[in-house]
Amino acid sequence: MPQLTHPEVDRIRLDHVLAALGNPVRLGVIARLAAGEHLNCTTALPDVPKSSASHHWRVLRESGLLHQQREGRFITMTLRRRELDERFPGLLDAVLTAAAETA
Fold first, then answer.
1. Edge-to-edge strands of the sheet including 66-71?
2. Nearest-angstrom CA–CA distance, 66 and 79
3. I want to staple 44 with a disulfide (CB 3.0 to 4.6 A). Which of 4, 39, 77, 89 is the partner?
4. What is the DSSP string of 34-103?
């Protein structure tokens, strides 16, 4: 299986984070993770085709928003909250608050 790569904190780029969050499916996943849900590759987007879900996971992981870890047949996901708050203080809270207000 291919290795899951994640950017180092100092390599997380604002434009990549904002582009990833600009998609409503990905923003929804991040909002669920921020709310404390525990998600894996099958529970996060059950109604999305596997190829589309894989694309969303790759974008979220490579942008630095998400950490993925293989656990048996599943890939679990965690929000990189501490790293994001360190790199861009207040950004994630601002985006999630704005998204909740417009929902």
1. 39-40, 74-79, 66-71
2. 5
3. 39
4. HTT--EETTTS-TTS-HHHHHHHHHHHHHHTSEEEEEETTEEEEEE-HHHHHHHSTTHHHHHHHHHHHH-
Taking only the tens place, the pLDDT of each residue in 44-98 is: 888 999 899 999 999 999 999 999 998 888 889 999 999 999 999 999 999 999 9
For residues 65, 70, 75, 76, the Cα torsion angle rounded to the nearest 10 degrees is -60
Length of the chain: 103
Q: With 0-12 CB in 10 A as exposed, 13-18 as middle and 19+ as buried, what is 16? A: middle
pTM, entire model: 0.91
The topology under which CATH files domain 10-97 is: Arc Repressor Mutant, subunit A (1.10.10)
Residues 6+ apart with CB under 8 A from 48: 25, 56
